[in-house]
Structure formats: C-alpha cells, structure tokens
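Shipment paperwork, digital attachment
Item: protein structure file
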Amino acid sequence: MGAYILRRLLLMIPTLLGIMIINFALIQFVPGGPVEQVLAQLEGGGDAFDSFSGGASEIQSTGNDSGYTGAQGLPQEFIDELERQFGFDKPPLERFLNMMWDYVRFDFGESYFRSISVVDLVLEKMPVSITLGLWTTLLAYLISIPLGIRKAVRDGSSFDTWTSGIVIVAYAIPGFLFAILLLVLFAGGSYLKLFPLRGLTSPGSEDLSIPMQIVDYFWHITLPVLAATISAFAGLTLLTKNSFLDEIRKQYVVTAKAKGLSEGRVLYGHVFRNAMLIVISGFPALFVSVFFGGSLIIETIFSLDGLGRLGFEAVVNRDYPVMFGTLFAFSLLGLIVGLITDLTYIWIDPRIDFESRET
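Attachment content:
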C-alpha cells in the first residue's frame, strides 16, 4: 500500500503541472488583462470589456500604439510602469516558471486589486464555502443512504413509488430555482419571514452566548444548505438504491438467506460493504461540485461572500494571482481527496488491493 500511495503522490506532480500549463496558456489569448482593466477604469470608470468592439479604430484615431484600448491620452511611461508592477515586462515562459516556483513554496502572492494576500483572501471567504460544502454533503448522505437502502429493499412497493416521485421532482428542479422559491416563501419574499436573507451570522452575534451563537448560525444557513442539497440528495438517493438493488439480486445474497441469516445481517453484513463502494466513489465529485461549482449561484442569491463569488470576480477583473493561486491550491486538494477516496475503499472492503495493480 505504501508503494501505491507514493505512486499516486508522484503522479500528482505532472497532473497538477498539466492543469496549470493549460490554464496559463489559455489565459494568454483572453483579452482584457489586468493592465487594460486599470487603464479602462482610469479613462472612463468602466472596465476593459466596454472597449473590445471598437478598440482597433480608437487606437488608430488617437495615434496611441501601446496596444491597450483604454490607454488613450496616458503616457507610455505610465503604461510601462503598470506592466512592470504586474510582471508583464517579462516573457510568458519566465512568468510561468516564476509563478510555479512560488506556488511550490506555497507563496501565492497578493491580489492585484485588493491589497491583500491570496491566502488571507481565501481564508476570509472560506467559512461560507465550508459551511455550504460540509453541511450540504453531510445532509445529502444522511438522507440519501438510508432512503436509498429502504427503496431498494422495498422495490416496487407504494413507498418506493411515491418516494421516487419526490426524488424525480427534486432532481428536475434546478438548485437556483429552489433557492428563489425558499426566499419567496420563507425569507420575506411574499409570504413568511422566518429566515434572514444574508450572511452567516447576525450583526452583534459575537455578544450572544455560545448556545445562541450556534442557533443564530444554523438559522442563517438553513435556506442556503437546503437549496444546495436538493439536487445532490436526489442523485445520490437513486445511486444508492440502484447500487443496493444490483447487489441484492446477486447469488451470494440468495445463498446467505438460504443459510438462515436474517435480512438485517445479510443487508448490513454482506450487501452494504459491496454496494457502498460506488456511493463512496461519488463523494469527491459531490463535495467538490457543492464546494466550488454550485456555490456561486447559491452565494449570489443568499448574499453570501464565499469562494464561488471570489473566483467569479477574479476572472472578471483578471486578478491573476487569485485565479491561479486558488486553481493550484484547489486542484491539489482535489487530487488529495481522490487518493483519500481510494484509501476509503480499502477501509470498507479490505479485499481491494490497489498496490497489486500494474502502473
């Protein structure tokens, strides 16, 4: 097992390097870099995207050949100084190598536009994303696994039929639409005002007692977590049911029942270990999708300032240190979570031996 873990750790290096190379290369062809963003704001208070359509003609008419559509009327020395501050006076290959050397030492630099280090910025936004990712994943598994097992055991019954209807409806409803529905019904939209609209805590909550702080925290996260859970719960329930249903129909289950073992002993002593493998294999994808992918819409609807909004704003503003720093850190985290998932397989079913697989 030690050799397998070492092999996986070594494979993370080219994988991570490939991710960074592809994204760094692609970003070189995207217009509206950080220098142009600053110039556009200085000229007109807008952003670099406002000037893409007429950029070439405007440069020709003003006689400015700096290459920046927002640079009309600004001295070339000022533009050169901006390039030097952002590091664009160096060739792309040198910039990439310097960036990767800093990242290997976990030096992610400072945001171009916020005057704060990338690490501090991520730590500042992390509580929101941890809240959504952790509680959504936990709630989805706590509901879906028992429900999926029950549906598999009672396959074809009335319980299976009406719960399948609920699951299908939940799967078909987009998370953002369910979030808006929760706001309208329970957050003062048109009906009840039972939950707050924004933030993880109420103003002045630090002055409350510890039990009341906990109550205030769960009061704020109830609607966002429910909205994020709806689609994850539906898909995971169907996955659990189908996995258990497939195992229940196998010959070893029939043999175990013929030997007089109880249904509970067969289900949780034999079927559970095999059926849960495919459910656990979906854990990294579920967690990452909730933690990063789906959080932007939920954060926006419920006015939460987390990593989803941070990443979106970094892309729009071309804040490269935030973009690439978070990409490196979270790609590395995703690879490590994948390794932990494989090790969890062995914990559930010791018969699995990854080390015997050929490289």
